[in-house]
Each structure stands twice: as structure tokens, then as C-alpha cells.
Amino acid sequence: MGLALIAAAFYITWKIYYRVEEKKDAIRRIRERGYLLALTDRNTLNYFIYRGEPAGYQLDLLESFADYLGVPLKIIASEDISSLYYYLDNNVADVIALNLPISSEGRKLVHYTKILGETRLILIQRKDHTPKFIASLDDLLVGDTVHARRNEFMAPYYRSFLKQTGKRPVLVQDPEISQEGLIREVAEGKINYLLCPENTARVYTGFYRNLDASVVAFPLYAYAWGVNHNSDTLLMKLDEWMAESRKSGKLRKTYLEYFGNQRIVANMGSDYVTLRGNQISPFDKEMRELSFRIHWDWRLLASLVYEESNFRLGQISSRSASGLMQLMPETAVKMGMDSVASPAQQLAAGVRYIKHLDEQLPPEITNPTDRIKFILASYNIGIGRVLQAREKAEKYGKDPNRWDGNVEYYLLSRSTKDPYAKNDTVSENLAVYSMEGFVDDIIGRYYHYKNNVKW
Q1: Nearest-angstrom CA–CA distance, 121 and 423
Q2: Do residues 82 and 130 share a domain?
Q3: How many domains are there within the chain?
Q4: Which residues have a Cβ under 8 Å from the Cβ of 123 and sit 6 or more positions away?
Q5: Do 212 and 124 touch, CB atoms closer than 8 A?
Q6: Predicted confidence band of residue 23 (pLDDT cuts 50, 70, 90)
Q7: Which residues of 243-270 are buried (b: 16+ CB within 10 A; e: fewer)?
Q8: Same domain, 78 and 161
Q9: Cα–Cα separations (whole angstroms), residue 209 to 124, 135, 183, 362
Q10: Engineering a disulfide at 317: which of 112, 168, 239, 321 sits with its beta carbon 3.0 to 4.6 angstroms away?
Q11: The pTM is what?
Q12: Which pLDDT value is given to residue 432?
């Protein structure tokens, strides 16, 4: 009986140790999941859509790191940093990609990566002296209200600010409004004073010319990304990537692309920056209405249109495809589109073609996501080639009704003999199709649209 108890205790201890080690191996978890899941916020510096294209400082860095790992990237975005930390703490996501201030409180919440950069904490206010202009922190009086974005990582710096001012002002931390939204509220006179990182403040004060960002609220501090305390292997990979990126100059180049580029300031005035106008293109209204005909999310339709034409009118491809949805001449005629078709008519013709392709696909393809991928592939290379690939997948024991790793493989295969088939001595000619990335690019962009653009 004693030996049995010892064995049971050993087994339980071993299982606990194994589970802890498994939890620590974040890289294995990412590879088994099949993608990197990152957390960031939406604004016209970190993560946004501009004229249909996903962009942003944090997005560019994340895509670079995902490429370094050799996995796709998915993003969860929120203005509330506390909710982002919740995802990280529960191992739902892998990394918080924000300029997180390195602080004692922060070290309790995450393991920091190598330092990304340094900045200061600045007081933003209007230049028009309304209600009064603050030339130094000593000018803040009892009852003055200073706003800040709620951020647990900034807590020591907020406390230092209150200590410097003798706790005279009232500090209000807003949980759900983005840093960009708070800066806009100062510019519009809705709030008077705001604490903000200096590098961010300099960009936005270039757009909002009525703002001042000259008063330093806290001196230089460092910032980094953060991972779960159990993500040792991921932290090691991140630090390796950052070291290589800094040595190659990629980190500095990416930083200057957003924090030192006047084009970013100019773009902030566009209705097609999603944080400002919630628009992807000039054709959103038409795509919203037409998408119901095919039971698609209109943002998925928008991603396909962007892939085909970048929302530019009058484009004709080298193969004579034309219109916003780049239909071939014979297809355009069948779908009721001619050379003088309006943008709405061009989109309607493309939607009719999507519906036509859907009707030709077998009903056995029941998974909605798979079916969309079959339709997208058919739109790109023709329904005949897709059906041919289904037959080949079935012949070699793959699922003809699933896309990823099944029918997709036989469209992208470049060999003349199937590597999965045993004792197959028949060499079959497999066409080489130029659709690498087409389906994935559209689906990936669609997820970015969902993150940034309301239904």
C-alpha cells in the first residue's frame, strides 16, 4: 500500500511538472495552434486601415516577428489595456504589442522583452489658454482635472506626477477611450489637460495645431512589449528577433516610418483612416448593400475588391480583366457589365459572379469558412481547376470538402507526382497555378477589417 501511495504521489508530481513545463513552452503552443496571436490597440499609429490597407507601427513589427517565427499573424485589438492583459494572463494570446512602460507594477504583470525605445510623459493642453495655460507643473491648482489613459503599467509615473504637483490636481484615468481619442477631446475642448507619451504627442500635435506638448510630466523612461510570465521560450525568440532587427536597422526604420513621417500626419485628415471615418473605401455603401445577396460580411467582399483593384477605377489587367472586381471580358458580359458600367454596376456584376460560383460548388462543402475559400479560389483561377483539385484530393485520401492542407495543396503543388501517394508510378501533369497567397491574403485582410471597421 505504501509503494502504491508513493507511486501515485510520483505520478501526480510528474503530471504537475509536465503541465507547468508545457505551459512554459509558448513557442510549441504557437506552432500547434498554427499562428501567432498578438494584442494591440487601434489608433492611427499602432494599428489602423488606410484606404483599404492594414498598417501601423505595432502591426509592421508584429508581421516582421511572425515572419521570423514562420507562422501567420492574428490580432486582438482593444482600447482597454486591462482587457488586453486579461487575454495575455489567461494564455489566450501570446504577446502585448504596445509601448508598455517598464515599471515595477509592470514587472508583476508581464515579462518585458528587450527595450524597444524611450520617451517622456508630457502634459497636452490647448494653446488658447482656455481655461488657463500651464507653463509648468507648479501652475496646476487644487481641483484642476488632468486626464490620462488607464494603464496599469504607467501607475508609478502617474503617482510621480501627482507627487510633483503636491496632489493638487485630480487625475482621471479613462479606461475605454484610446490615446488618440483623448488627444482629440483636448483639441475639441472637451477636456483641458492630458498626460501622454511624448513620441505619441509629437505626432498628434502635428495634426491638431491648437495643441501644446511642451510641459514634461515625467522624465525619460523605457518601454517594451510584454509576454506572460510562463512564456520563457517566446520571450527568448522575441529578444533574438529584436536584437537582429536593431542591428539591421529595421527597428529604427519602422519607428521613423510612423513617428517621424509627415505623411502619417497628413493621413489623419482622411475619411479613409478607420479611426476617423470608419470607412474602407468610397464604395462601402454599395458593398454593404450587395453583400446580403451572397450572405457575406461586407468587409469580406471589400477585402476581395481591394485584392482585385485596390478600389481604383478604370484598371485593366494584362489579361483584359476590368472593373473594380477585375472580371474577364466574357465573364463581365455574362454578368451584365459593360465598358460604361458605374462602380455600383461593376460591384453588382462581381457579386453575381460570386453567387454563380457558389451555386456550382458541391453542397457537400458545408463548412462556411471552407466554402468561402473555395469560392475565392474559384474567383481567382476558375471553377474548373478547383473542381479538378477536389477530385485529386479525394483520389489521394484527402478531404475534398476541406480547403486548408487538402484541396489547397493540390492547387499549389508544383510536383508532377503526389508525395502522399504510395506506389503511384503514374506521373500526372499538375498545372502550376499563380494563386499563392490569394485566398490567405483576402482572409487575413478581412480579419484586419473586422478589427478596425464596424459592421
Answers
A1: 68
A2: no
A3: 3
A4: 134, 137, 146, 193, 194, 195, 213, 215, 216, 217
A5: yes
A6: low
A7: eebeeeebbeebbeebbeeeebbebbee
A8: no
A9: 12, 18, 12, 59
A10: 321
A11: 0.86
A12: 39
